[in-house]
Structure formats: structure tokens, C-alpha cells
């Protein structure tokens, strides 16, 4: 599960492609504005965000920023929309447990070492638009992760009829819960321990429809 | 799992006891101030909270509020401390699955129908003091819930060596994740579905130390 972090390190080729297309300039403006909004959020917090500050920081005219994004909610929603347009696929390690361990390591890293992820989640408690965009981001990620469940069923590891969303929420929710809500001390074994539990549970049919 | 809601409906007897003790007046002042802080948070949001507003709303002198609670973080931390001092015990239904279903119904109700719980969780993203107090509240609740695991082990339902905290976080985290972070549509089957999955997983040894 990748974090909702817009990748600033797009492959050069993709950037060039975009720049060549009509709308390339518009895409470049968008990138500057969204980068500025995210940097401002991470460095100075939600309360510091405004159209004026982001315009100033990005060097894009205030009127342009206002017309396109309207307000802070619009900016954050677009940051998350942009983060959704990537080629991320879930890990494919050859076993359910391996896939869940790998996915959980991504979540864990996002929650413990990436200030962007936590800042965007925090912002979702302040802005309904950001909350809705974050929800859409996660729905898309859980949908992509359905491959993990499908492959495990095909390998005969878990029962047919296993509910993918239930399995994946079970695998990831304890990480968000421990790290964001319970603010547990960081615990390098957590991603693997939870992944192993959920793989055991899935093999026992815990997420199969009855 | 009860919500972190201070019970305003203390049994009359307990209130009288307190009023009789030395410090009864102080306890009454505290109650007025904390009730005012919580009502302000729920009705007008975190940004509206201040020592002045809470003093005005509670009818307690500003200097008293400032001296005792210092700032908004101090007020929210004390709201949560007060919520921790109750006689809540986990449900005891005679089976692991029954206990988890009952506990999850409490969490679900707190997250879907009680604005206090969600407001306090939101505030924990704004105030480190509130976050620390919420963490302590939950640690205490999960500790109390260890009875659920102990009884299930004693009944022979699940393996000795089952980790209670892992089991209980697995049982509750998906509710917080779906309702607070993923903002899923409310789903009356969620508490029971997750509880049943976790009971199945626990019986299969998913939370037993290896």
C-alpha cells in the first residue's frame, strides 16, 4: 500500500511527454502549485495554508490559483487526486503472507518516516474535501490490492469467496490504529506480525463469506 | 469498549458523596469547566476553544480556569482523564465471539452516533496533550479488555499465549479505519462481521505467540 504521496520523481520521460502535450504548461503550473501546497502543509501545518501563501510560494499568480483550486480544500483534494494517478501495483512475492508483509512495510514506512502521509491524514480531519479525496485514494488502493487476494485464492492458499476488502483492511488497519490513534512506540515487528496474523486468519476462512 | 465520553449522568449518590467531601466544591467547578469545554468543542469545533470562551461558558472565573488548566490542551487532557475514571468493564457474554460483538457494538455506536468521541479524536490531531491523554485512555481500555481474552483462554476457546492486545486491536481497528479514515458508509453489520472474523482468527491461533 503506497502512501498518498505524490511522486515528485516522475520518470523524466513521462514529464517530457506531458510537457509536449497541449496542456503541458498547465500541467507544469499544477505541479508547482501542488508541490507548494504540500510543502507548506508539511513544514508549517494546516493552519498556515491559504491560497495567498501557496500562490506566493509557487510563484503562480494568485488569480490563477484561486480560479483553479478555489480554497485550501480544493488544493488538498487535487494533491490527493494527483497522487492517485500512478502505476502502483501491490507487491507480488508468491505467497499471501509475503504480499501482506511487503504491503505492510510500505504502510509502516509511510506512517513512520513520511511526513506527507501523516500531514494529509491530519488535514482530512479539517477539510471535508480533503477527507473525500483521501477516501477515494484509499478505495482505489484497496481495489488494486484485490490482486493479492485473487492470487492467494488461485494458489489455493485461502478459500474462494474470501472478501478482499475485509482481508486487506484487517491487514492494514492495526498499523494505522497503533501508529496514528494509539500512538504506540514504533515497533519494527508490527508490519510482519499483523501480516502473519491476517494470513493465518485468511487461511482459516475468517474473511470468507458464509 | 466505551467511548471516551465523560458520563454526565453520574449516579446521584456518587455526586452527593463528592459534594460532601472536602474538595466537593472544587470537583463541581471542574465538572462545570470540563462540560463547557466539551460542549464548545462539539458545537463549534477545536478552533473555537479558548480559556476565555470556556470560562465564559462555564461561569467560572477566567483566572481559575487559566491557573488550573493553562490552555486548551490542558482542558482536553483533563476531559479525557476524567473519562478514564469510570467503572466500565468489558462485556461478559459467555463466549469470545459474543464478547467481541458486544464490545464492537459499543465502539460502533461511539463512532457513528456520539459526536463527543469523534470530536476528541479530531482534537488529538491538533493537541499533543490531548493525543497523549487519548492514548492513555485507550491503553487503559485495552488493559481492561484483557479479561475477554483471559476468559476465552480459560474456556479453552483459544490457545494459551494469545496476545490480548493484538486480538483486541484486530477486533476494533477495522471499525476506526472504516468509519474515521475510509469514511465508509455506515454498515450495521460491520461490528459483528469484524468480531466474527477475529474470533475465527483467534481460534486458529492467529494472535498466539510463536
TrEMBL record, chains A, B:
Transmembrane domains' residue ranges: none
UniProt-listed InterPro entries: Homeodomain-like_sf, HTH-type_TetR-like_transc_reg, HTH_TetR, Tet_transcr_reg_TetR-rel_C_sf, TetR_C
Domain of life per record: Bacteria
Keyword rRNA processing belongs to the record: no
Pfam families tied to this protein: TetR_C_11, TetR_N
DNA-binding region: 50-69
Domain HTH tetR-type: 27-87
Protein name as annotated: TetR/AcrR family transcriptional regulator
Record organism: Micromonospora antibiotica
Taxonomic lineage from the root: Bacteria, Bacillati, Actinomycetota, Actinomycetes, Micromonosporales
